[in-house]
Amino acid sequence: MNDLNTERLRIIALNAENLRLLISNQKQLESNLSLNESSTMLNQELKQAMEVRLSKVLMDDKQKYFWHTNWLIVSKDINKIIGGIMIKGPPNNNGEVVIGYYTNAEHQGNGFMTEAVGNFKNWLLTNDDVIYVIAYTEKDNIASHKVLEKNNAELYKETEALFFWRFSLNTP
After folding, report:
1. Which of the residues in the chain have pLDDT under 70?
2. Distances (CA, A) of 39 to 92, 106, 112, 162, 166
3. Range of the domain at 74
4. Exposure letters 62-96 (e unless 16+ CB within 10 A, then b)
5. What are the N-acetyltransferase domain coordinates in residue numbering (predicted)?
6. Which CATH number characterizes residue 96's domain?
7. What region, left, alpha or beta, does residue 152 occupy, with left being phi > 0 and alpha being psi -120 to 50 degrees?
8. CA-based angle 15:37:6, to the nearest 5?
9. How far is CA 161 from CA 88, 137, 140, in A?
10. Fewer C-beta neighbours within 10 Å, C or N terminus of the chain?
């Protein structure tokens, strides 16, 4: 699996070994990937999410792990991890894939996630089996809403707590 690249970012799919290191020994992961050391480590909630990702990566065949893993978002300028993005499994019968993402606090507000999500959804929509890229956000997560709005996501559903957004091939 090749990395994805934007003007300012590298987006790196983590294999099982590297995903395990992200959870348990981020400094070693950064060393293995020749990255500068980040001051931010995963919080407990993200570690639990990564453990779920890891269990799915280990169950899938080696060629398809990218559907389940975390992808590191690395700033090219400082060569540090600034966040992550993930696909929560292969396309369902409706051609939908769900993504989730996070930005480390010290890198928020710089447009990195807008750039990463735009690149990632464009890449996903080149897959013949993907018709929609879905993201859901808590209603009070204004920063995440802005990321999706700037990438022309369609708000198509809501629950008491969440907004559901989607991109399709028709999304500009």
Report:
1. 1, 61-62, 171-172
2. 37, 9, 17, 31, 33
3. 4-168
4. eeebbbbbbbbbbbeeeebbbbbbbbeeebeeeee
5. 33-172
6. 3.40.630.30
7. left
8. 60
9. 20, 8, 9
10. C
- Please tell me the total number of residues recorded for the chain in this structure: 172
Structure confidence at residue 108 (pLDDT):
93
List the beta bridge partners of residue 21: none
Q: How high is the pLDDT of residue 1?
A: 53
Structure tokens at 128: 């013949």
Question: What is the reported pLDDT for 60?
Answer: 75
Instruction: Tell me which amino acid residue 148 is.
Output: L
Structural domains in the chain (count) = 1
H/E element holding 37? none
pLDDT, residue 172, reads 66
Residue for token pair 């396309």: 91
